[in-house]
Amino acid sequence: MNGFVISTRFGGTPADPKEDPAKLALIGAQVRARLRADTRAEDLGGDKADMFLLRDFFTADECVRLVRIIDKKIGPSTLFEGTQRDGFRTSSTHHFDAGDPATRELEKRIDAATGIPHQHAETTQGQRYEAGQQFKHHYDYFFASEPYWQQERRRGGQRTWTAMLFLNDVEEGGETDWPELGLSVKPEAGALLAWNNMARDGTPNRNTLHAGTPVVKGVKYVITQWYRQDPWTLHLS
Questions:
Q1: At a CB cut-off of 8 Å and minimum separation 6, what does 166 contact?
Q2: Comparison of pLDDT for 55 and 83, the residue scoring more
Q3: What's the predicted TM-score (pTM) here?
Q4: Residue 200, Cβ density class (10 Å: 0-12 exposed, 13-18 middle, ≥19 buried)
Q5: Cβ atoms of 131 and 72 closer than 8 Å
Q6: What is the pLDDT at residue 2?
Q7: Measured between alpha carbons, how far is 160 from 73 in angstroms, rounded to an integer?
Q8: What are residue 204's DSSP bridge partners?
Q9: Cα gap 108→134, rounded to integer Å
Q10: Are residues 63 and 190 in contact, defined by beta-carbon separation less than 8 angstroms?
């Protein structure tokens, strides 16, 4: 998007250039400024985290259409190798087809809100949580000390922003819980929640610990778009 610059303007050499605090801080500042200027955006994170809620980001009809796409092809949600724990993430996941016009329209609108070029985006995912299903407290950013990092650093490096689109209201449960922020976000059809996984100095923000709490009644549908420091690739050579 126009105005998005990925360059290092701070001194020092990062321990790993794929987790570069200078780049990550700059990306965070650019997206934060863009969302603060968006009249739809409500600032939820305050001084602890960059987090914004945009209500009515998608219409009810658009959300229904996306739910149907998710339900057509779905399988168990997974975790990165070495981090799996029974019962930790029990939802189902749909991987959107990048060639589908509805998918591209969805991605274009999220990219436009954040201002992040789409080449930095991972494959767009849809998640379905049925009664009793959850995703326990976790961080979206990567830990460079974990074995999976050696692969993920080659795919685009550290995660920057997460954008989560809620596709339906949930009768009971299914909130996104942020214990360090004292915040619980209830699913609201058409609302987009976007947050920076990094602190303003470009290091991982521990205040972004969050969970998808168990659905008590009904079914919860969300779409998640993760962005990386550098252009993302699925297939490594």
A1: 187, 188, 189, 190, 191, 192, 193, 221, 222
A2: 55
A3: 0.91
A4: middle
A5: no
A6: 36
A7: 28
A8: 198
A9: 28
A10: yes
